[in-house]
Amino acid sequence: MQKRITIVGAGIVGIATACYLRRDGHEVTVVDMSPPGEYCSFGNAGILSPGSCVPLATPGILFKVPGYLADPLGPLTLRWSYLPKALPWLLRFVAASNITRVERIADALRALLVQTFDAYAPLVKHAGVEDLIRRTGYVAVYGTRRAYEGDALAWKLRRDRGVVMDELDAAGIKRHVPELPGNYEVGLYLHDHGYVANPERLTKSLAAQLQRDGGTILQRKVIDIELGPDGPRALATDAGSIPVETLVICAGAHSNEFSRRFGDDVPLEAERGYHVTVSDPRFKLSLPVMVPEHKLFVTPMEMGLRIAGQSEFAGIDAEPDYGRADVLARLMQRMFPGISTADATQWMGRRPSMPDSLPVIGPSSKVANVYYAFGHGHVGLCGGAPTGRIISDLIAGREPGLDIRPYSPGRF
User: Fold this and answer.
1) Beta-strand runs (E) in 152-261
2) Are the C-beta atoms of 388 and 119 separated by less than 8 Å?
3) Which of 91, 245, 329, 392 has CB atoms 3.0–4.6 Å from 4's, for a disulfide?
């Protein structure tokens, strides 16, 4: 049965969800204060990684944090004035590092992300942007075997869930990525992975196709939600009221501002990340490179070479600290000696992150005709199309092909 469905959020998750719902014949309206493809959908690392099944919190993480914070080139930053507000989330994060929970989380992440390429395929084909999806695999590199062995659990979690990879020595790394200097001792090549050559263009292209197919995109700021006995009735926006029958919240790091309105107070945090993009690096990588020791990716893109990473906890409204982007620029220069970052652009975005690294996908536990699709953290691009397909299945009454209980808003 055709429904009138309103989606709050025009990032990749919201737009992919809208595309799948429109394919089912629903009347679809997307509402966002910004145009499609902004925020994290603009600035992410572009990685499509069906094997990203390792949560951020794993056993021993508590003992690694002081070293991360003390290292000026480290991947983690905490503004101490924000600690009291972040503490409840951080305590849940540490609690999620128990090995039993880690195994269950890894199962749920893999079940979602293994669909990545399959779920994107019909959307990019219909929009005429299949060229943006590059199924190249990627390489992870370590400076020492000791560092690699320190990540043994992470790679075991992947292998145990069917992620195919080849271990590389220094010569093997050089064959895959001849642009890297010879100071990486161990690497891994991950099959069946890849990247998006321009994440912004992907989201904007899908959004344009959605409109050609009869969907509506409204650039408005949602101020409040009017509720009735059967669920949401209208969105109050800065440009008037929008009637609502079925509502899907895909509002990124702002999503819990809406879920609280429905009684689902999920522990969502704005985990801030940075990127540096060099428009003319004077060489072309053939595939992305991951450096686990610094929690970063380097990705070849249409607009140049992008290095992305960092985890900063400072609050959703704090000003960017572009010193973190400078760290990425220095690490890029270390990886590729001689590269010039003089013309580089810098960016900061707010990842919508859950303490257990699992997104919130499915119906509200409190209010009828409300669905959630947010909280993907570092895997929003990978999870965008799979999540959209799941939401469309749930609204149509179809079995989504996986157990959605691990993504429930009520799990906390």
Assistant:
1) 165-168, 186-190, 194-196, 216-219, 222-228, 231-237, 240-243, 246-249
2) yes
3) 245
Residue 338's identity, in one-letter code, is: G
Structure tokens at 138: 């990627």
Contacts of 67 (CB under 8 A, 6+ apart): 74
HEC letters along 329-352 = HHHHHHHCCCCCCCCCEEEEEEEE
The answer to whether 348 touches 322, Cβ cutoff 8 Å, is: yes
CA distances from 172 to 113, 184, 312 (A): 27, 10, 34
**C-alpha span between 177 and 195 (Å, rounded):** 16
Show pLDDT as tens, one digit a residue, over the chain (412 residues): 799 999 999 999 999 999 999 999 999 999 999 999 999 999 999 999 999 999 999 999 999 999 999 999 999 999 999 999 999 999 999 999 999 999 999 999 999 999 999 999 999 999 999 999 999 999 999 999 999 999 999 999 999 999 999 999 999 999 999 999 989 999 999 999 999 999 999 999 999 999 999 999 999 999 999 999 999 999 999 999 999 999 999 999 999 999 999 999 999 999 999 999 999 999 999 999 999 999 999 999 999 999 999 999 999 999 999 999 999 999 999 999 989 988 899 999 999 999 999 999 999 999 999 999 999 999 999 999 999 999 999 999 999 999 999 999 999 8
Q: Which domains does the chain have, with CATH numbers?
A: 58-97+135-192+268-353 (3.30.9.10)
Question: Which residues, listed in sequence order, are joined to residue 379 by a DSSP beta bridge?
Answer: none
Which residue in 181, 178, 188 sits closest to 142, CA to CA? 188
The answer for residues whose C-beta is within 8 angstroms of residue 316's C-beta and 6 or more apart is 253, 254, 270, 350
Residue reference for tokens 């973190």: 324
What are 334's strand-pairing partners? none
At 325, list the tokens.
């982007």
Using DSSP's 3-state secondary structure scheme, residue 316 falls into coil
Residue type, 390: I
Ordered DSSP codes for 65-108: HHHHHH-TT-SEEE-GGGHHHHHHHHHHHHHTTSHHHHHHHHHH
